[in-house]
Structures
1.
Amino acid sequence: MANLGFTHRFEPREFASRTLLLLHGTGGDENDLLELGRALDSQAALLSPRGKVLEGNAPRFFRRLAEGVFDEEDVVARAGELSSFIDAASAEYKFPIQNLTAVGYSNGANIAAAMLLLGVAKFRSAVLFRAMLPLSRIDVPSLTGYRILMLNCSFDPIIPLPNAQRLGQIFQSAGAQVELRIQPSGHELTTADVEAAREWLRSQRVE
Ligand code: MLT
């Protein structure tokens, strides 16, 4: 498998309904969310890169200075890098980029959010599990036509709910169709998250 700038996995699917771009959380890797991807849409091809930033031994998609405090210059650079990887992967594996949906968890959701806010997202729809606002100074592009499901929690010790709500409002003000669901759980994914995301993806499917 060619590297294309990121260690990654690509799982093709014959007559794929879509391609899911799987973006893991801190300490995850390219294998982490494959099972989740299959559970969310068994008909989807899966593209799963490993974040290139190391915090100790833990891969991430961008550098942070402390928990919830991000190196924003790095966020911008890494968002661009990941965007180029998606183009390269689409050419290499011949999946249509217009059918790409991002599925990110925690740090992976944050890089997906950054790509949307910076106008470099190649995906038009996204499922963001436990996302927060990754950038403070942003001139958000139009996100009309983009569809975003955010799944956040009232008892998340890492992501303050008002922060996630603000991200949702920014997406919405930019024209995206946003659904923010707040679950009565914590930072870890639950079966309720998986079920909600699966239903949402099903409702978005273009046959
Ligand atoms: C981040 O660093 O992106 C967020 O704090 C979530 C995390 O990865 O812990």
Note: The pocket of D-malate is lined by residues 25-26, 64, 67-68, 106-107, 110, 158 (CB under 6 Å).
2.
Amino acid sequence: MKLCMIGTGYVGLVSGTCFADIGNQVICVDKDLDKISKLKSGISPIYEPGLDELIKKNYSAKRLFFTSNIKQAINSSDIIFICVGTPTKKGSLKVDLSYVYKCCKEILKFTKKKKILVTKSTVPVGTGDEIEKIIKKKKKLFTVISNPEFLREGEAIRDFRYPDRIVIGSNEKKTFNTMKKLYSPLTNKGAKFFTTSRRGAELIKYASNAFLATKITFINELANLCEKSGVNIEDISLGMGSDNRIGGRFLRAGPAYGGSCFPKDTKGLVFAADKHKVNLSVVKSVIKSNFNRINLLTNRIHKILGSSLKNKKISFLGVTFKPNTDDMRDSTSLKMIPYLSKKGALINYYDPSGEKKEFRKIKNCFFKNNIKNNCYNADLVILLTEWDEFKTIDFKKVIKNKKFKVYDLRNLYNANEMKRNKIQYFSVGRPNIK
Ligand code: UDX
Ligand code: UDX
């Protein structure tokens, strides 16, 4: 099939490349000329495992194309996927749909023959109806449907290829057949094809992300209780998660959840519900608890290091919101590092995805290019992101400061082993912080 992806961010680029890989002709469009020129020379503008190779393979097979010319891309496609960002409006809970609407206006301008117009971007319930209003002049040329993405950064290619379900929301039954055909290489391997109304699909996306965020927040709060009551949170996650009705995934306690989706989608859902005068009090509490979690964790850093942080050497292992991505959106590090710097701490950080522009102006905060340089002589090492290369660090060898401490925010290390090695070790939801 002939597809066009508008927006080559984390979602548009991965989906476009994977659609090409299952045999479609895909044109990816982006207004960012720099991104397009990188992509044309085979370089992925984002860090996503396996994506570079897949882009090269499909680009040279002439199934995958990149352009900044939206007119050309629209003209040569039958199905158009909108994959532009839908961030939260600054200072509110509202979703900023201006990129989506702007791109619909352009699509309207250039469309001459029948197309399926798909929102892959996460959009509030009822957005499809608003899009129909924008394109009403050429209404007969479009079927507007919703096909939300469920790709986790760092595992996005796998999630595309082996989805738990593919959700298609349309008010016109015959579009389901076209979409079923498009996704047949995945449904043939067992992916569930779930159809519903357009509004239904829009809401399923928000409901899924808000529920996952609730699971994480629930376990994070229970981790606080575990620390006070001498219980290990991992036992609780396992014991609870073994109940099929609950399920064991997304029950890992850690820092505040972050990323481009959970923070924005929980807020977006509350905003949409408020508009309909429905009080989603559970989701509201989740947002608040996740916000407060960063204060709670910085208070613990004070407890570990003593009340004054002045001239304390703190080394961060990982600063992205999760491993295997370069994405910094809503990472706990964005609040924690500036706070510690303000308190006079001397900060080093190392992240396998490289230096971060977000920290360039932070006082006494330096990027180090490997674990050893980063941790040397530290008073406290904070493990924030569970990248594989952090799993087997010989802390005594790399730190060389007899009194160092380790605060493991992902429970990556074995507490007993740390004890055996006489390392002052603190983690999350394990009975070790008084
Ligand atoms: C996506 C979705 O769109 C969002 O709704 C979902 O919840 C998360 O995933 P993401 O791929 O992470 O967002 O966004 P981003 O990485 O910001 O990429 C958006 C791309 O669209 C950028 O490359 C931007 O240049 C491009 N864009 C934006 C356009 O090409 N045209 C526009 O008008 C606006
Ligand atoms: C999420 C959705 O999972 C995915 O379906 C899509 O809608 C995009 O948004 P993503 O944000 O890329 O994916 O990563 P995810 O693995 O969901 O992690 C989100 C945040 O939750 C991260 O900060 C992660 O560290 C945290 N998390 C996740 C936990 O703290 N504990 C867990 O058990 C799982």
Note: The domain at 220-287 is CATH 1.10.1040.10 (N-(1-d-carboxylethyl)-l-norvaline Dehydrogenase; domain 2).
